[in-house]
Design a protein that fits this description.
202 residues; alpha+beta; Aminopeptidase; 6 helices; 7 strands; 35% helix; globular
């Protein structure tokens, strides 16, 4: 296992590919009780026309990933996960920021997500990116825990743009080169999906 350190991290952002699904599923199962299988990720990439998934590579290996669904003018955050050996290095922040960049590239107005009330680390990360609680879904998760519904203000508002600019500077110090990659992520080209379909996640 890689020892966590304080040295700046080198990471490469790009859209998720089919070749990434095994690594993504392994990270998913290390992060969540009911993680997706590689087949579920393949269905998302091949059949879900509103899905947009990104990965961060460290040393050529998938170290983190995140995904959202483009639904009208809103981006619904589906998942954010970081491999255990790369946590607390800024990759979680990088992936949430990447979703914001993707959303802006699609001219979306806001982001929404569900989060466990017990997941304090995730809630703190999302609050850093301007998410705030707007409701609760009772017994949303398989173990009966509720889900907090969180959303952002308009991504194009001056206040949110200022927040992103400040956070981008902070990320650049943690992960040099990330600022340019985040700007480029707004213009990523996405693969043409083979068929229409709905998400595999339930």
């Amino acid at each position: 296992m890689t020892t966590l350190g304080t040295e700046p991290l080198t990471a490469t952002l790009r859209p998720m590919r089919l070749e990434d699904v095994a690594a993504a599923a392994a990270i998913e199962h290390a992060s969540f009780e009911r993680g997706w299988t590689p087949a579920a990720f393949r269905r998302e990439l091949l059949e879900n026309r509103v899905a947009r998934y990104a990965v961060a590579l460290v040393g050529g290996e998938v170290a983190a990933f995140a995904g959202l669904w483009v639904v009208l003018d809103e981006g619904h955050v589906v998942t954010v996960a970081v491999a255990p050996q790369w946590r607390r290095r800024g990759l979680g922040r990088l992936m949430v920021h990447t979703l914001g960049a993707i959303a802006l590239g699609h001219e979306l107005d806001s982001l929404t997500l569900e989060c466990r009330p017990s997941n304090e680390a995730a809630r703190a990360l999302y609050r850093k990116y301007g998410f705030y609680e707007v409701g609760r879904r009772k017994r949303y998760y398989a173990d009966g825990e509720d889900a907090l519904i969180m959303t952002t203000e308009s991504l194009r508002s001056p206040s949110y743009q200022a927040r992103l600019a400040r956070l981008e500077e902070e990320l650049e110090a943690l992960i040099p080169g990330s600022a340019a990659q985040l700007r480029a992520a707004r213009d990523w080209e996405w693969p043409r999906f083979q068929a229409e379909g709905s998400s595999a996640r339930s």
